[in-house]
Amino acid sequence: MAFKVGDLVGDYEVIGTLGAGGIGQVYQVRHAISQRVEAMKVLLSVQSGGDEVSERFLREIRVLASLDHPNIAALHTAFRHNGEMIMIMEFVEGVTLRGKLSSGSIMMSQSLDYMRQVLSGLAFAHAKGIVHRDIKPSNIMVTGHERIKLLDFGLAFQGLGSDITRTGLILGSLHYMSPEQVMGERVDQRSDIYSVGVTLYQLLTGRAPIDGSSEFAIASGHLKDTPPDPATINANIPPKLCAIVMKSMAKSPDDRFQTADEFLEELGSLGTDETRTFLPTPAQSRETSGHAPRRPDPAPVPAKPPTSTLSGASVLSSVTRELAHYIGPIARVVVNRAARQAHTLDELYSLVSAEVGTESERKAFLATRQKYSLEN
Predict the structure, then answer these.
(1) Which of 11, 51, 113, 134 is catalytic?
(2) Global pTM?
Protein backbone atom coordinates (compact mmCIF):
# COMPACT_ATOMS: atom_id res chain seq x y z
CA MET A 1 0.00 0.00 0.00
CA ALA A 2 1.05 3.62 -0.49
CA PHE A 3 1.86 5.89 2.44
CA LYS A 4 2.02 9.67 2.64
CA VAL A 5 4.05 12.08 4.75
CA GLY A 6 2.72 12.10 8.32
CA ASP A 7 1.40 8.52 8.26
CA LEU A 8 2.34 6.29 11.18
CA VAL A 9 3.51 2.76 10.41
CA GLY A 10 3.97 1.04 13.72
CA ASP A 11 6.50 3.16 15.62
CA TYR A 12 7.65 4.94 12.45
CA GLU A 13 6.47 8.29 11.03
CA VAL A 14 6.75 8.78 7.27
CA ILE A 15 8.71 11.99 6.63
CA GLY A 16 9.50 11.64 2.94
CA THR A 17 9.45 9.48 -0.18
CA LEU A 18 12.71 8.10 -1.53
CA GLY A 19 11.38 6.40 -4.64
CA ALA A 20 10.38 3.02 -6.00
CA GLY A 21 12.75 0.10 -6.22
CA GLY A 22 12.32 -2.99 -8.35
CA ILE A 23 9.82 -4.59 -5.95
CA GLY A 24 9.20 -2.02 -3.26
CA GLN A 25 8.35 1.58 -2.48
CA VAL A 26 10.96 3.27 -0.28
CA TYR A 27 10.20 5.97 2.29
CA GLN A 28 12.20 8.08 4.69
CA VAL A 29 10.88 7.52 8.21
CA ARG A 30 11.65 8.59 11.78
CA HIS A 31 11.37 6.25 14.74
CA ALA A 32 8.93 7.72 17.25
CA ILE A 33 11.02 6.82 20.31
CA SER A 34 14.66 7.01 19.23
CA GLN A 35 14.04 9.74 16.62
CA ARG A 36 16.52 7.98 14.34
CA VAL A 37 15.92 8.58 10.63
CA GLU A 38 15.76 5.35 8.66
CA ALA A 39 14.61 4.00 5.30
CA MET A 40 11.40 1.95 5.07
CA LYS A 41 10.79 -0.38 2.15
CA VAL A 42 7.29 -1.71 1.48
CA LEU A 43 6.30 -4.28 -1.12
CA LEU A 44 4.66 -2.48 -4.04
CA SER A 45 0.89 -2.87 -3.71
CA VAL A 46 0.44 -3.62 -7.43
CA GLN A 47 2.82 -6.55 -6.99
CA SER A 48 1.75 -7.77 -3.56
CA GLY A 49 -0.38 -10.59 -4.98
CA GLY A 50 2.49 -12.17 -6.84
CA ASP A 51 4.04 -15.11 -5.03
CA GLU A 52 7.38 -14.72 -6.82
CA VAL A 53 7.68 -11.01 -5.98
CA SER A 54 6.67 -11.61 -2.36
CA GLU A 55 9.26 -14.36 -2.12
CA ARG A 56 11.92 -12.01 -3.52
CA PHE A 57 11.05 -9.40 -0.91
CA LEU A 58 11.20 -11.93 1.91
CA ARG A 59 14.47 -13.29 0.54
CA GLU A 60 15.98 -9.79 0.50
CA ILE A 61 15.05 -9.38 4.17
CA ARG A 62 16.68 -12.66 5.11
CA VAL A 63 19.77 -12.01 3.00
CA LEU A 64 20.30 -8.56 4.54
CA ALA A 65 19.73 -9.96 8.02
CA SER A 66 22.81 -12.15 7.51
CA LEU A 67 25.03 -9.30 6.29
CA ASP A 68 26.78 -7.02 8.77
CA HIS A 69 29.48 -5.13 6.88
CA PRO A 70 30.43 -1.43 6.69
CA ASN A 71 30.03 -1.43 2.89
CA ILE A 72 26.53 -2.94 2.86
CA ALA A 73 23.42 -0.93 3.80
CA ALA A 74 22.22 -2.55 7.01
CA LEU A 75 18.83 -4.06 7.80
CA HIS A 76 17.53 -2.81 11.17
CA THR A 77 14.30 -4.79 11.47
CA ALA A 78 11.33 -6.19 9.58
CA PHE A 79 7.68 -6.61 10.54
CA ARG A 80 4.15 -6.84 9.19
CA HIS A 81 1.74 -3.89 9.25
CA ASN A 82 -1.89 -4.40 8.25
CA GLY A 83 -0.85 -7.45 6.27
CA GLU A 84 2.02 -5.66 4.50
CA MET A 85 5.65 -6.75 4.79
CA ILE A 86 7.83 -3.85 6.00
CA MET A 87 11.62 -3.60 5.93
CA ILE A 88 13.44 -0.94 8.00
CA MET A 89 16.94 -0.19 6.78
CA GLU A 90 19.86 2.12 7.40
CA PHE A 91 19.19 5.49 5.76
CA VAL A 92 22.22 6.19 3.59
CA GLU A 93 22.63 9.87 2.85
CA GLY A 94 24.82 10.57 -0.11
CA VAL A 95 24.86 10.23 -3.89
CA THR A 96 24.90 7.12 -6.03
CA LEU A 97 27.94 6.26 -8.07
CA ARG A 98 25.72 6.94 -11.05
CA GLY A 99 25.42 10.52 -9.82
CA LYS A 100 29.18 10.74 -9.30
CA LEU A 101 29.76 9.52 -12.85
CA SER A 102 27.48 12.14 -14.37
CA SER A 103 28.65 15.09 -12.28
CA GLY A 104 32.21 15.40 -13.56
CA SER A 105 35.75 14.07 -13.36
CA ILE A 106 36.88 11.73 -10.58
CA MET A 107 40.44 11.03 -9.51
CA MET A 108 41.51 7.60 -10.67
CA SER A 109 42.71 6.81 -7.15
CA GLN A 110 39.25 7.71 -5.80
CA SER A 111 37.55 5.45 -8.35
CA LEU A 112 39.80 2.59 -7.33
CA ASP A 113 39.02 3.22 -3.67
CA TYR A 114 35.30 3.00 -4.45
CA MET A 115 35.79 -0.33 -6.22
CA ARG A 116 37.94 -1.69 -3.39
CA GLN A 117 35.11 -0.93 -0.99
CA VAL A 118 32.57 -2.58 -3.31
CA LEU A 119 34.76 -5.67 -3.54
CA SER A 120 35.21 -5.73 0.23
CA GLY A 121 31.44 -5.81 0.69
CA LEU A 122 31.02 -8.46 -1.99
CA ALA A 123 33.79 -10.62 -0.55
CA PHE A 124 31.88 -10.66 2.74
CA ALA A 125 28.59 -11.54 1.00
CA HIS A 126 30.20 -14.18 -1.21
CA ALA A 127 31.77 -15.83 1.85
CA LYS A 128 28.21 -16.41 3.04
CA GLY A 129 27.19 -17.85 -0.32
CA ILE A 130 25.29 -14.71 -1.39
CA VAL A 131 25.57 -13.41 -4.96
CA HIS A 132 24.22 -9.86 -5.52
CA ARG A 133 23.44 -10.21 -9.27
CA ASP A 134 22.66 -6.51 -9.84
CA ILE A 135 25.89 -4.59 -9.25
CA LYS A 136 25.73 -1.27 -11.12
CA PRO A 137 26.42 2.43 -10.36
CA SER A 138 22.86 3.18 -9.22
CA ASN A 139 23.07 0.41 -6.59
CA ILE A 140 26.28 1.84 -5.12
CA MET A 141 25.89 4.77 -2.71
CA VAL A 142 28.74 7.13 -1.81
CA THR A 143 28.29 8.89 1.53
CA GLY A 144 29.62 12.34 2.38
CA HIS A 145 32.62 10.64 3.99
CA GLU A 146 33.37 8.69 0.78
CA ARG A 147 32.08 5.47 2.32
CA ILE A 148 30.58 3.00 -0.15
CA LYS A 149 27.28 1.28 0.67
CA LEU A 150 25.92 -1.51 -1.52
CA LEU A 151 22.15 -1.33 -2.02
CA ASP A 152 19.35 -3.52 -3.32
CA PHE A 153 19.95 -7.18 -2.64
CA GLY A 154 16.49 -7.92 -4.08
CA LEU A 155 17.96 -10.13 -6.81
CA ALA A 156 20.48 -11.82 -4.53
CA PHE A 157 20.31 -15.50 -3.77
CA GLN A 158 21.96 -17.65 -1.16
CA GLY A 159 23.44 -20.99 -2.09
CA LEU A 160 23.50 -22.76 -5.44
CA GLY A 161 20.58 -24.96 -4.46
CA SER A 162 18.08 -22.09 -4.57
CA ASP A 163 15.27 -22.23 -7.11
CA ILE A 164 16.15 -18.67 -8.05
CA THR A 165 19.24 -20.01 -9.87
CA ARG A 166 17.17 -22.07 -12.28
CA THR A 167 18.15 -21.95 -15.93
CA GLY A 168 16.26 -19.39 -18.00
CA LEU A 169 15.65 -16.81 -15.27
CA ILE A 170 17.01 -13.48 -16.51
CA LEU A 171 17.08 -10.68 -13.95
CA GLY A 172 19.35 -7.69 -13.59
CA SER A 173 20.48 -4.63 -15.54
CA LEU A 174 21.56 -5.47 -19.06
CA HIS A 175 24.57 -3.14 -19.39
CA TYR A 176 26.18 -4.79 -16.35
CA MET A 177 25.18 -8.44 -16.82
CA SER A 178 27.74 -11.19 -17.22
CA PRO A 179 27.46 -13.36 -20.34
CA GLU A 180 26.16 -16.28 -18.30
CA GLN A 181 23.54 -14.05 -16.69
CA VAL A 182 22.47 -12.75 -20.11
CA MET A 183 21.90 -16.33 -21.20
CA GLY A 184 19.83 -17.09 -18.11
CA GLU A 185 22.34 -19.69 -16.92
CA ARG A 186 23.34 -20.55 -13.37
CA VAL A 187 25.59 -17.83 -11.96
CA ASP A 188 28.04 -17.60 -9.07
CA GLN A 189 30.24 -14.94 -7.47
CA ARG A 190 32.21 -14.52 -10.71
CA SER A 191 29.15 -12.93 -12.27
CA ASP A 192 29.35 -10.13 -9.67
CA ILE A 193 33.05 -9.78 -10.52
CA TYR A 194 32.13 -9.19 -14.18
CA SER A 195 29.64 -6.49 -13.15
CA VAL A 196 32.26 -4.79 -10.96
CA GLY A 197 34.64 -4.89 -13.92
CA VAL A 198 32.06 -3.22 -16.14
CA THR A 199 31.50 -0.52 -13.51
CA LEU A 200 35.24 0.06 -13.09
CA TYR A 201 35.66 0.31 -16.88
CA GLN A 202 32.94 2.96 -16.92
CA LEU A 203 34.61 4.88 -14.11
CA LEU A 204 37.96 4.85 -15.92
CA THR A 205 36.74 5.70 -19.43
CA GLY A 206 33.43 7.51 -18.98
CA ARG A 207 31.56 4.98 -21.09
CA ALA A 208 30.07 1.51 -20.83
CA PRO A 209 32.27 -1.23 -22.30
CA ILE A 210 29.30 -2.84 -24.05
CA ASP A 211 26.54 -0.73 -25.57
CA GLY A 212 24.16 -0.84 -28.51
CA SER A 213 21.01 0.53 -30.05
CA SER A 214 18.80 -2.26 -28.71
CA GLU A 215 18.63 -4.79 -25.91
CA PHE A 216 19.57 -7.50 -28.39
CA ALA A 217 22.69 -5.59 -29.45
CA ILE A 218 23.78 -5.10 -25.83
CA ALA A 219 23.08 -8.70 -24.87
CA SER A 220 24.87 -9.97 -27.96
CA GLY A 221 27.81 -7.69 -27.20
CA HIS A 222 28.27 -9.25 -23.77
CA LEU A 223 28.44 -12.65 -25.44
CA LYS A 224 30.67 -11.86 -28.43
CA ASP A 225 32.35 -8.43 -28.34
CA THR A 226 35.64 -7.59 -26.65
CA PRO A 227 35.57 -4.00 -25.33
CA PRO A 228 38.37 -1.63 -26.41
CA ASP A 229 41.35 -1.55 -24.08
CA PRO A 230 40.67 1.27 -21.59
CA ALA A 231 44.01 2.92 -22.49
CA THR A 232 42.76 3.53 -26.05
CA ILE A 233 40.10 5.79 -24.52
CA ASN A 234 42.14 7.29 -21.66
CA ALA A 235 45.90 7.12 -22.16
CA ASN A 236 46.47 7.94 -18.47
CA ILE A 237 45.33 4.48 -17.38
CA PRO A 238 48.40 2.37 -16.52
CA PRO A 239 48.84 -0.91 -18.44
CA LYS A 240 48.57 -3.03 -15.29
CA LEU A 241 45.19 -1.51 -14.43
CA CYS A 242 43.99 -2.07 -18.01
CA ALA A 243 44.94 -5.72 -17.71
CA ILE A 244 43.08 -6.02 -14.40
CA VAL A 245 39.92 -4.49 -15.87
CA MET A 246 39.98 -6.66 -18.97
CA LYS A 247 40.51 -9.84 -16.92
CA SER A 248 37.54 -9.00 -14.71
CA MET A 249 35.35 -8.83 -17.84
CA ALA A 250 36.51 -12.05 -19.48
CA LYS A 251 33.68 -13.84 -21.30
CA SER A 252 34.35 -17.14 -19.53
CA PRO A 253 33.99 -17.12 -15.73
CA ASP A 254 37.06 -19.37 -15.54
CA ASP A 255 39.19 -16.61 -17.10
CA ARG A 256 38.14 -13.91 -14.60
CA PHE A 257 39.29 -13.34 -11.06
CA GLN A 258 37.81 -16.26 -9.17
CA THR A 259 37.02 -14.33 -5.99
CA ALA A 260 36.38 -10.74 -4.95
CA ASP A 261 39.40 -11.01 -2.64
CA GLU A 262 41.64 -11.88 -5.60
CA PHE A 263 40.31 -8.89 -7.57
CA LEU A 264 40.77 -6.69 -4.50
CA GLU A 265 44.36 -7.85 -4.02
CA GLU A 266 45.23 -6.99 -7.63
CA LEU A 267 43.82 -3.48 -7.29
CA GLY A 268 45.78 -3.07 -4.06
CA SER A 269 49.02 -3.89 -5.87
CA LEU A 270 48.83 -0.73 -7.99
CA GLY A 271 51.30 2.00 -7.07
CA THR A 272 49.81 5.26 -5.80
CA ASP A 273 51.82 7.33 -8.28
CA GLU A 274 50.20 5.43 -11.14
CA THR A 275 46.68 6.54 -10.22
CA ARG A 276 47.05 10.26 -9.43
CA THR A 277 45.17 11.59 -12.41
CA PHE A 278 41.70 12.80 -13.24
CA LEU A 279 39.51 10.70 -15.47
CA PRO A 280 37.62 12.09 -18.47
CA THR A 281 34.18 13.57 -17.93
CA PRO A 282 31.81 10.66 -18.62
CA ALA A 283 29.86 10.50 -21.85
CA GLN A 284 26.13 10.46 -21.22
CA SER A 285 24.53 7.04 -21.40
CA ARG A 286 21.34 5.34 -20.31
CA GLU A 287 22.91 4.40 -16.99
CA THR A 288 24.92 7.57 -16.37
CA SER A 289 22.65 10.35 -17.61
CA GLY A 290 21.37 13.00 -15.23
CA HIS A 291 22.30 13.95 -11.70
CA ALA A 292 21.30 11.65 -8.89
CA PRO A 293 19.55 13.07 -5.83
CA ARG A 294 21.18 12.76 -2.43
CA ARG A 295 19.22 9.60 -1.74
CA PRO A 296 18.83 6.22 -3.45
CA ASP A 297 17.89 6.54 -7.12
CA PRO A 298 14.30 5.64 -7.87
CA ALA A 299 14.13 2.62 -10.12
CA PRO A 300 11.44 2.27 -12.77
CA VAL A 301 8.24 0.63 -11.60
CA PRO A 302 8.09 -2.76 -13.31
CA ALA A 303 6.07 -2.90 -16.49
CA LYS A 304 2.55 -4.31 -16.31
CA PRO A 305 2.74 -8.10 -16.35
CA PRO A 306 1.68 -9.78 -19.59
CA THR A 307 -1.89 -10.99 -19.92
CA SER A 308 -2.82 -14.63 -19.65
CA THR A 309 -2.25 -14.99 -23.40
CA LEU A 310 1.49 -14.82 -22.74
CA SER A 311 1.64 -16.33 -19.28
CA GLY A 312 2.16 -19.88 -20.46
CA ALA A 313 5.74 -21.09 -20.77
CA SER A 314 4.79 -23.11 -23.87
CA VAL A 315 3.88 -19.97 -25.83
CA LEU A 316 7.13 -18.20 -25.00
CA SER A 317 9.13 -21.35 -25.72
CA SER A 318 7.48 -21.69 -29.12
CA VAL A 319 8.17 -18.09 -30.08
CA THR A 320 11.74 -18.46 -28.82
CA ARG A 321 12.30 -21.49 -31.05
CA GLU A 322 10.96 -19.63 -34.08
CA LEU A 323 13.09 -16.55 -33.38
CA ALA A 324 16.21 -18.63 -32.71
CA HIS A 325 16.25 -19.68 -36.37
CA TYR A 326 17.13 -16.06 -37.22
CA ILE A 327 19.15 -14.68 -34.29
CA GLY A 328 20.44 -17.75 -32.45
CA PRO A 329 20.30 -18.63 -28.73
CA ILE A 330 20.02 -15.00 -27.66
CA ALA A 331 16.37 -15.32 -28.74
CA ARG A 332 15.51 -16.47 -25.21
CA VAL A 333 16.68 -13.16 -23.77
CA VAL A 334 14.81 -11.12 -26.37
CA VAL A 335 11.53 -13.01 -25.94
CA ASN A 336 11.59 -13.03 -22.14
CA ARG A 337 12.20 -9.28 -21.98
CA ALA A 338 9.59 -8.46 -24.65
CA ALA A 339 7.03 -10.59 -22.78
CA ARG A 340 7.18 -8.12 -19.89
CA GLN A 341 5.80 -5.39 -22.16
CA ALA A 342 3.53 -7.28 -24.56
CA HIS A 343 -0.11 -7.94 -23.65
CA THR A 344 -0.94 -10.12 -26.64
CA LEU A 345 0.88 -12.58 -28.87
CA ASP A 346 0.67 -10.11 -31.76
CA GLU A 347 2.39 -7.46 -29.66
CA LEU A 348 5.08 -9.95 -28.67
CA TYR A 349 5.76 -10.85 -32.30
CA SER A 350 5.90 -7.19 -33.24
CA LEU A 351 8.43 -6.39 -30.51
CA VAL A 352 10.81 -9.28 -31.10
CA SER A 353 10.67 -9.11 -34.90
CA ALA A 354 12.58 -5.82 -34.74
CA GLU A 355 15.67 -7.83 -33.81
CA VAL A 356 15.60 -9.90 -37.02
CA GLY A 357 18.24 -8.56 -39.39
CA THR A 358 16.78 -8.52 -42.91
CA GLU A 359 13.34 -7.63 -44.18
CA SER A 360 12.84 -11.01 -45.84
CA GLU A 361 13.78 -12.90 -42.69
CA ARG A 362 11.56 -10.61 -40.63
CA LYS A 363 8.57 -11.42 -42.87
CA ALA A 364 9.34 -15.12 -42.67
CA PHE A 365 9.46 -14.95 -38.89
CA LEU A 366 6.20 -12.96 -38.67
CA ALA A 367 4.54 -15.58 -40.86
CA THR A 368 5.07 -18.15 -38.11
CA ARG A 369 2.60 -16.25 -35.95
CA GLN A 370 -0.32 -18.02 -37.62
CA LYS A 371 0.81 -21.35 -36.14
CA TYR A 372 -0.23 -20.25 -32.69
CA SER A 373 -3.75 -19.48 -31.60
CA LEU A 374 -4.60 -17.02 -28.85
CA GLU A 375 -5.42 -19.97 -26.63
CA ASN A 376 -1.80 -21.27 -26.76
Answers:
(1) 134
(2) 0.73
